[in-house]
Amino acid sequence: xxxxxxxxxxxxxxxxxxxxxxxxxxxxxxxxxxxxxxxxxxxxxxxxxxxxxxxxxxxxxxxxxxxxxxxxxxxxxxxxxxxxxxxxxxxxxxxxxxxxxxxxxxxxxxxxxxxxxxxxxxxxxxxxxxxxxxxxxxxxxxxxxxxxxxxxxxxxxxxxxxxxxxxxxxxxxxxxxxxxxxxxxxxxxxxxxxxxxxxxxxxxxxxxxxxxxxxxxxxxxxxxxxxxxxxxxxxxxxx
Length: 239
Description:
Blueprint lengths: L3 H33 L6 H168 L7 H21 L1
Helix pairs in contact: 2-3
């Protein structure tokens, strides 16, 4: 209980020291602000500063006007340039649209060309197959032509042999005809000889019949014509 008063007196002392320190800081700040405040300066200095400020304001106003004109010119130039850029952008957009249309048309044309190329490739393949088939047929036809050529050569040889045989047959026919004519002339000659022999025989028979001869002598006389006929037949066969 006896130690409580000294503790409270120490706390009060600290609070008082803190308040004094705060008061001294506030007083120091007030002194600095008072010393640096423009309201505390002299009137002459204020008028001089005001004059300088007015002159500076005029200079700044002139500069501002120049800058304003320059800025307005720049703004106008920027606007003109913006308009030109807009026009250029519109032209570019038109070109871009035209280019897009051209690209679409080119794409459609390319699609058509791809289809045509596919059709042409199919046609080329068909032509190749047709060419291969025709080449095979041509080879077969050439082989057939070679066979026909050989047959034609053989037929030519056969025709030549037939012609030679025909010529030989014609020559044999001519020889046979000449032999036939010769035989016919010989036959006519033998007929004439036979007629002569018959006439001679008839004359001999008449002469024999005119003579009175005994019946026993008639047999040798009757054999004479038969002998003459045999001689004529033998001559005909020999010739």
